[in-house]
Amino acid sequence: MDNNLVDGGHLKAFIERIEKLEEEKRAIADDIKDVYGEAKGTGFDPKIIRKIVSLRRQDKSKREEEEEILGLYLAALGME
């Protein structure tokens, strides 16, 4: 690849922005981990909280469909 065809300054700016965002993402992930730790410290189950957060992100009809299928599968296995 010819170095004359690549705008190094522009490329560097993109890379630096991405690096900054990755750093912020790690900091936010640490903050979230701390909140789960606080919840656990007050008696809540972090695994269940994670599941609830995941469910709240889903569209209601999608969630209901998944719950229905899960119920069918559990019943088929004699687990319901």
UniProtKB/TrEMBL annotation:
Keyword Lipid biosynthesis: no
Residue runs in coiled coils: 11-38
Domain GapR-like DNA-binding per the UniProt entry, residue ranges: 9-78
Classification via InterPro entries: GapR-like, GapR-like_DNA-bd
Oxidoreductase listed as a keyword: no
Domain of life per record: Bacteria
Keyword field: Coiled coil
Annotated GO MF terms: DNA binding
Family annotation (HAMAP family): UPF0335 (MF_00797)
Family: Belongs to the UPF0335 family.
Name recorded for this polypeptide: UPF0335 protein H2LOC_001775
Species, as recorded: Methylocystis heyeri
Organism classification: Bacteria, Pseudomonadati, Pseudomonadota, Alphaproteobacteria, Hyphomicrobiales
